[in-house]
Amino acid sequence: MKNIIKVTAGSLFISAMIACGGGSGIEIKKAKLEELKAKQSEIAAEIKALETEIASSGDSTNSGNEKRKMVAIAPLEASTFEKYIDVQGRVDGDENVVLSAKVPASVIKIHVRAGDPVKKGQTLATLDGEIVKTQIKDLETNYKLVAEVFNKQKSLWEKGVGSEIQFLQAKTNKESLEQKLATLKENLDMYVISSPITGTVDEVNLKEGQMAAPGMPAIRVVNFAKLKVKADLAETYAPEVKSGNAVVIQFPDLNKEYRTNLHYSGRSIDQLNRTFKIEADLPSSPEYIPNMIAVVKVISYRNPNALVVPMSLVQESDGAKIVYVADKASKKAVKRTVTLGKVYNGKAEITSGLKAGDLIITAGYNDLNDQESIEF
């Protein structure tokens, strides 16, 4: 391609002045300045014409005269958005009982160990009830005599021999001893610790020879088939939480998560701590232990088709919430005014201003301006 050299009238004029030796130095400089200005205008016009021609052809290649800001983008897709109410809970059971002795006495025999399965009514430990046993033996000896006297007196009374008073006294003595024996035998049952439920022995806090007393924890029995998680929620959440709400239960120590529903949500507020109780059932598993810590996450809001962005991408401009998106065709940053829905855990639900498929600027969005040129 041939180069075209343009010679302006100003150049010829300056050359002629120099050749003739005419004109002052200042006049030559002015003429030179005018010539350069003319060239500048001509070059600028040519650059503009070329840029227009390139843009109209669909080529968005940077002409080299425009500086573009590097950004990162990600397509916006619909996803499930859930808002949780987080609270610490604990594992408990409907059948989780701590047994203690009914009377003060020393422990004679412990019949179970931790982990043993037991049935309702099974004897777990025997206490020293020798005093009561001795009393029962004495009464039983007396009862034999009293019962024999009564039977003879009854036989005589039926034959018309003897007085009614003698018969009634013999009968009264017999019935009195029967009642005393029944009472002592009931008292003897108090020297036995038995299980009120069918379950598993979880703790044995007694030792043989140790003194047991009422109110002192002795043996814990748990029915692991009926465990649940309990928690206390602040009263401010009462309008949002009802029985049947979906809930996620996390066990940090087990690195496990379980999804279920609340089977109970209290409708009364504790006056001392201003909370109400919630409960969720757990599946039967030996991994769940009474009083184990659990994180209870009650789902108070769920949108299965939400547009969600990190809150860090949401900026404020003139009192409005904005998010920058990338226009792929023009490689420009576009400022979008958005409306936020629910916000949870650093993520925001967008209810208006964005649509699925928008290219969200996820890095380099700081100090961006609307319609600023970008590279990604």
Helix content: 25-40%
The topology string of helices and strands comes to HHEEEEEEEHHEEEEEEEEEEEEEEEE
What can be said about the biggest beta sheet?
Answer: 6 strands, antiparallel, barrel
- Anisotropy-based shape: rod-shaped
Task: Indicate how many domains the architecture comprises.
Answer: 4
pLDDT below 50 for ≥5 consecutive residues: which ranges?
1-9, 60-64
> Any idea of the CATH topology of the largest domain?
OB fold (Dihydrolipoamide Acetyltransferase, E2P)
Average pLDDT works out at 83
The separation of the N and C termini measures: 36 Å
Radius of gyration: 48 Å
Name of the CATH first level of the largest domain: Mainly Beta
Strand order of the largest sheet: 3-12-15-14-13-16
- Counting DSSP H or I runs of 4 or more residues, the number of helices is 4
Number of DSSP-assigned strands: 23
CATH H level, superfamily name of the largest domain:
RNA polymerase II/Efflux pump adaptor protein, barrel-sandwich hybrid domain
Task: Classify the beta-strand content into a percent band.
Answer: 35-45%
Task: Decide which structural class fits the backbone.
Answer: alpha+beta
